Amino acid sequence: MSDHRAGVAQTLFHARIWSRDGHALGVAHDYRAHHVETGAVQPQTNGHVHRLSPRYRFSGARWAASVSPVVATSSNVGRHPGEIHRALIDWHGSVAYRVRLAPHLSGYGGVCRDDRFGRVRVSPLLGVTWEPGHAVRATVGWPDSAVEWDVHPRWRIRATINPVGGHWTVYDNELARRTVFQYAGWRVRLGLHLLPAVAHRLAVSVGRDLRRSFRFRLEDGSAFSSDFSDATAIGVEWQWLRGAAQPHRPP
């Protein structure tokens, strides 16, 4: 394992703009501040990157699908909107089909296109979900797995494992030199989800980021990649709901 050091601070914002009969429109913004010490090739960026992604999502009894145009680049490009061009826009999406296997067991399969593994790629979606009752739900799948336990109508314990990578096209301060910046890793997390008040939800979590790696590819073709040691991940999430928040999984 390399002794290079790397840290990541992340802020996520998501808003649902409209929803009706299983259809929904929303927008998400993902800001990450990377601090990478390699002593070798450095990306042409200060490590501050953004991802802006409007999204359409459909969820039915059996089918689920989503599509999203994504702009993923460095913060200095965001200060010059005129520099955003077609090459910076990518398309992410997914489609999956769910089937009932037994009274408390269902399975799903499909495909997705995103950058959660550090580069934009098409990946399978596969898994099974076990729901023995209203209080417990367990999903074992690829690439996402989760176990949820509704201990009380107003609080839930949730454990997850999922990829947390990303892919950005970043620029130097003069917007002259470009670097492809990639991050890959997995996150194992345990969280407590609460309904502390009407129309509010709060979640706190602690986890571990595993198998972390960074890769930089410059315009001249030179590249640098390195693995980094595991890191602790601490998260706080607040959600405002229009109207009263509903208890977790009412019977």
CATH architecture, by name, is Beta Barrel
Order of helices and strands: EEEEHEEEEEEEEEEE
CATH class: Mainly Beta
CATH topology: Porin
Distance between the termini: 48 Å
Radius of gyration: 20 Å
In total, the number of domains comes to 1
Strand-pairing-aware structural class: mainly beta
The average pLDDT score comes to 86
Helix content range of the residues, please? under 10%
The number of distinct helices, counting runs of at least 4 residues, comes to 1
Q: Which term fits the overall shape? A: globular
Number of E strands: 15
Descriptive account of the structure:
The protein has one helix at 75-78, and strands at 5-20, 23-37, 48-59, 63-74, 89-102, 105-114, 121-130, 136-142, 145-152, 155-163, 166-171, 178-197, 200-218, 223-228, 231-240. The protein has 251 residues and is mostly beta strands. The chain has a single domain (5-240), classed as Porin. It has a 15-stranded antiparallel sheet that branches. The longest helix is centred in the first third of the chain and has 4 residues, at 75-78. It starts with a strand and ends in an 11-residue tail after the last strand.
Helices and strands in order:
Layout: E1 5-20, E2 23-37, E3 48-59, E4 63-74, H1 75-78, E5 89-102, E6 105-114, E7 121-130, E8 136-142, E9 145-152, E10 155-163, E11 166-171, E12 178-197, E13 200-218, E14 223-228, E15 231-240
Antiparallel strand pairs: 1-2, 2-3, 3-4, 4-5, 5-6, 6-7, 7-8, 8-9, 9-10, 10-12, 11-12, 12-13, 13-14, 13-15
Distinctive features:
single chain; 15-stranded antiparallel β-sheet; 251 residues; mainly beta; globular; Porin; 1 helix
